[in-house]
Amino acid sequence: NLTITFQFYKIAYLLPENEKKVGEVLVADIGLRIPEGNHYNSILIDNSLAKALIQIPSKYSHKGSNGHGLLIAGSENMPGAAIIAAKSALRSGIGKVTVHLPKSIAGLIPFTSPEALLSRDKNEFFFSGIDFDKLSTINSIAVGPGIGNNKITTAALKDLIDEVNSPIILDADALNILSENKVWINYLPTNSILTPHFKEFERLVGKCQHDFDRINKLKEFSNKHQIILILKGAHTVIAMPGGKLYFNSSGNPGLATAGSGDALTGILLAHLARGYHPETAAILSVYVHGLAADMAIENGESFESLTALDIGKNMGVAFKKIVFSSMQQSLNKNITE
Prior knowledge:
13 helices
């Protein structure tokens, strides 16, 4: 039921297969003195780390200086993914977000997210391509939520990967298409961000024998392709090129709901558009995504009632909690093997 560990979390305590063997974890300070300059390969994302990374907007900032993101999402059967991601981006400080949608569902955006700009696909029902001249003012691109895996969509994703030179965020159906065309991974821009859940990750790398095998494959894949991998779960793990792992400490079981990943995609899009380095954007987005879900529970939702839109609604209090918290160093920000 309870594990007390000295000074730092252990990786084993953060893995799903050990849940019943570990229970609640308390980190006890036994006064260890850590030599200055020590470098850790595994770090826990907590409030103090998030506060050190967050950029407070200047009073002279404007929508142009806060970035312009392009969200390619949605299809006739899955319009909600685009709406959830767009709302989360708009709640994360982005200056402008353009949502690229099939014609048949494009009319939803003015009613659900009137702040967003609209780009209509030539196809009625699914993503078939985009005019690359529109990318000249774009600071970040996210693609995948709800786009489906139509052959035309597959070809359009390949064209996008070939055209874009800056880091791109790939989620959901974009990852499923990528898993069927693995050679394309070699053409992704350095520091692109992929956000798979466990099954999507296994489609990319193959079957994992256990949680430690999955972590090793995560590091190897990130290093090999020089991309950032966000493996979504109870303690979402971020693998960085170079071998560092970041384990998230925010979030709760209410996030196990449809659209939760779409919300994270929108937050990532906003932070990348605002000029955060992709590694910083990944760390901060994952933490604030989980923290917004925690704030929703504090504000009256339950694990059962939490929906993806509640994440966006609670982004404001999540950002405030990070900014106005104490800068005390936590005992457990580093993780031992």
